[in-house]
């Protein structure tokens, strides 16, 4: 095998078992990232997967979880050997991250009781509304407790046999370590967190048990949930069984330390250095969400705003939109097929960069075109299902530039509606950090997001590595915290990870801001068409 020249420090780090592994289960890809002492990515691997819509439920099979994990790790091990001439046999630390929320219910023997219900499902409206009213805080549709309570309200037979509930990250972590724990950021998407104690809110737990008992539940909710751990804590070690799951060849050795498993929102905050109060970030993928770390509580609960936590346990206001860049990617795929049909096939990166460049030539308001990216229901705008739409009037200007600008605007539209609420609560930030594939083409999506939020938007040099790199950094922090127990996560990131990191910041262009505002006004008016489409089709 040909070996790409590498520096000796990276090779020695891998050979000595001192490299750190991060794995994240995203909506469309499972990614693995290997980092060294300076937090630079040494190797990577990935596996593409897709959720399935089975009997009106968005789900992934646990078999797909295991096989995808193994393929991503196998690609990383091969990449490390190709790039550095040495195949990892041991890691110093490992971290697991995954898309947050959803419902994974197991019996006492560890058998899955019903198919995994992901964050994308919006069938928990009755439970969400009841719990929000009872708790006085917003309980989103996708939270684990909403799924559990909805199952109780619906009288689902499996609820009497539940031994424990967890998230996808918690499930994979338990398979690798035997520990049933969860990072506080991910746990905050299962049940509200008490920021004073760093654990589940005890008073709300008692209230839930009262409500659940009326629907036939027995026992305490907290007995079903994973133990909550903040970033930097010991979350177990790689077991022999876990090592074989990661690497069926048997080469990989057990013993690596684990950080608490986290959600993709938490790893996004880490990847963009946005864990300190009054910092914020936007993560764009299959879904799109913004996180603003609070320095004061919100005045009122809002249906559009989730209260979650950073991996360190600090309170965060989250605007989560179920629909992100998937519809935009579908249109790019159509244009890619058209190019191939003309005899000029192009790689997807080339297709995206060409279409994004065209968007810069479009009218500032999208030329009268509106793009609704609703493949699934959208709680922020109160829609139970999705119907992707391209809407225009007869006098609108349909051309490539306007089409693509409207689609990119459409990715950010629902998010900007939620962010307006935070701005009214005086919880806005001076700069938003962004990451996700949509920002790879320089100067386009970043510029449009700045217009949508009317704040500067920064994209760092590490943002392209994504959540797998972010959870690897959290695993490295677990090692550093063992040596320096008082080391805060925000200080670790600022002083050791991001010191001197390159950041590109784009200021909002006033003409873009005005054009986007016009687009958004029409977008809000057009939501009635989206609602009609759900009923009609």
From TrEMBL:
One of its GO terms (molecular function) is kinase activity. Keywords: Carbohydrate metabolism, Kinase, Transferase, Xylose metabolism. Residues 281-477 form the Carbohydrate kinase FGGY C-terminal domain. GO terms for biological process: D-xylose metabolic process. Residues 20-244 form the Carbohydrate kinase FGGY N-terminal domain. Belongs to the FGGY kinase family. This is ATPase. It comes from Glutamicibacter soli.
């Amino acid at each position: 095998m040909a070996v790409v020249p590498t520096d000796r420090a990276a090779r020695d780090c891998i050979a000595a078992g001192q490299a750190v592994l991060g794995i994240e289960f995203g909506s469309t890809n499972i990614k693995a990232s290997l980092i060294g002492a300076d937090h630079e990515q040494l190797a990577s691997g990935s596996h593409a997967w897709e959720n399935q819509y089975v009997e009106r439920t968005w789900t992934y099979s646990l078999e797909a979880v295991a096989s995808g994990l193994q393929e991503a790790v196998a690609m990383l091990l091969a990449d490390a050997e190709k790039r550095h001439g040495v195949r990892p046999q041991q890691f110093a630390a490992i971290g697991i991250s995954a898309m947050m929320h959803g419902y994974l219910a197991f019996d006492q023997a560890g058998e899955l009781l019903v198919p995994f219900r992901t964050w994308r499902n919006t069938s928990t409206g009755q439970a969400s509304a009841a719990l929000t009213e009872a708790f006085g805080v917003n309980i989103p549709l996708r939270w684990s407790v909403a799924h559990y309570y909805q199952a109780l309200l619906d009288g689902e037979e499996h609820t009497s046999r539940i031994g424990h509930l967890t998230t996808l990250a918690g499930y994979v972590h338990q398979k690798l370590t035997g520990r049933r724990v969860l990072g506080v950021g991910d746990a905050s998407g299962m049940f509200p967190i008490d920021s004073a104690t760093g654990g589940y809110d005890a008073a709300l737990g008692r209230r839930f048990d009262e409500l659940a008992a009326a629907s036939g539940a027995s026992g305490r909710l907290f007995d079903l949930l994973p133990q909550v751990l903040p970033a930097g804590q010991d979350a177990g070690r790689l077991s022999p069984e876990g090592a074989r799951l990661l690497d069926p060849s048997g080469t990989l050795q057990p013993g690596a330390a684990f950080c608490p498993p986290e959600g993709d929102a938490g790893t996004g905050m880490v990847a963009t250095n946005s864990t300190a109060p009054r910092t914020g970030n936007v993560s764009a993928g299959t879904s799109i969400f913004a996180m603003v770390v609070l320095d004061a509580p919100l005045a009122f609960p809002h249906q559009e705003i989730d209260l979650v936590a950073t991996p360190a346990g600090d309170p965060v206001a989250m605007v989560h939109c179920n629909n992100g860049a998937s519809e935009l990617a579908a249109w790019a795929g159509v244009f890619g097929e058209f190019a191939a049909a003309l005899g000029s096939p192009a790689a997807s990166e080339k297709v995206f960069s060409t279409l994004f460049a065209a968007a810069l030539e479009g009218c500032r308001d999208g030329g009268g075109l509106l793009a609704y990216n609703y493949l699934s229901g959208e709680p922020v705008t109160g829609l139970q299902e999705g119907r992707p739409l391209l809407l225009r009037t007869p006098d609108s200007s349909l051309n490539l530039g306007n089409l693509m600008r409207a689609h990119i605007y459409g990715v950010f539209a629902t998010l900007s509606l939620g962010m307006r609420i935070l701005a009214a609560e005086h919880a806005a930030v001076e700069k938003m950090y962004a990451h996700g594939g949509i920002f790879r083409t320089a100067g386009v999506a970043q510029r449009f997001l700045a217009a949508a939020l009317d704040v500067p938007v920064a994209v760092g040099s590490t943002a392209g590595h994504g959540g797998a790199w972010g959870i690897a950094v959290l695993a490295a922090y677990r090692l550093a915290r063992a040596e320096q127990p008082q080391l805060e996560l925000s200080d670790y990131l600022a002083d050791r990870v991001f010191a001197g990191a390159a950041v590109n910041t784009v200021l909002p262009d006033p003409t873009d801001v005005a054009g986007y505002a016009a687009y958004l006004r029409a977008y809000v008016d057009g939501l009635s068409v989206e609602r009609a489409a759900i009923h009609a089709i």
